[in-house]
Amino acid sequence: MVRDIAEQLKARFSEMDVEVPLEDIEKKLDELINKFRVPVEEAKRSVVSQYSKDRKSADLLKVKDIQSDGQWISLKTKVVQLWPSESESIAQSGLIGDETGTIRFVSWVKSDLPPVEEGKCYMLKNVVTDEWQGRYNVKLTRSTEIVPIEDDIEVSSVVEEFLGAIVDIQSGSGLIKRCEFCKRALAKGSCGEHGKVEGMYDLRIKGVIDDGKMVQDILLNREIVESLIGITLDEAKKMAAEALDQSLVLDAFRERLIGRYFSIKGPRVGRYILVEDVKSSPKISDQDVTELIKEAEAL
Fold it and tell me: What pLDDT score was predicted for residue 89?
């Protein structure tokens, strides 16, 4: 098994223009897997990380040109949005983009990289592409170099539309606090990067919308939330203070949204649509559906 994996990695290194003797790869894998009982996938990542540090500078690509898994590249991008960490092993994750599109990124805690800031532009040198659920993303590793740049990159994205009923408002929605330094959502008053901080209040909705055939995760920022719900950030803070209960805001959001139909529009990122436009829609009756089917069949 180790030999087969070593040959796979040897071929991968060759594609990256990195020359590593097959025997060296096999020896390192054998040590990690059989001696130290490291899981196979983790051992593969460790070997790739070790030998890729000595590789030449990665090619500078545009987001739209990312078309393969395991490719070492450099990107000149803008940080569009930072997301709450879903794992203790993730330092930062979010959305980056350039003039050609957007892509998800992940920075690992073990990589020990400086944090990026939302709205700022960077040259990301030596990041590796990855494919998950049919979509590409990039991973920032120990060999990645993060260089702030002064450019103001105009980010392009593909807009999608979805019509359905909101069936869930998830935890992490409502009145939340973000780190004032990196904009990450706080967990129990603490930022994963900066520890205990004062934080600043924000409004957010992480929801699920259902069109009867499929469900879609959606994210709504403060501006969209205030417009949709009719509650401003200051009003939400006042509600929470008077009730001595921050969850009151989340309850109000759920009461006003769940079961109602909306037409939403925005760019897709991973499993989410980042809502930029939302309109209330009447419930679609079975009769309406039947009429639409008849019209479609007549075309």
Answer: 84
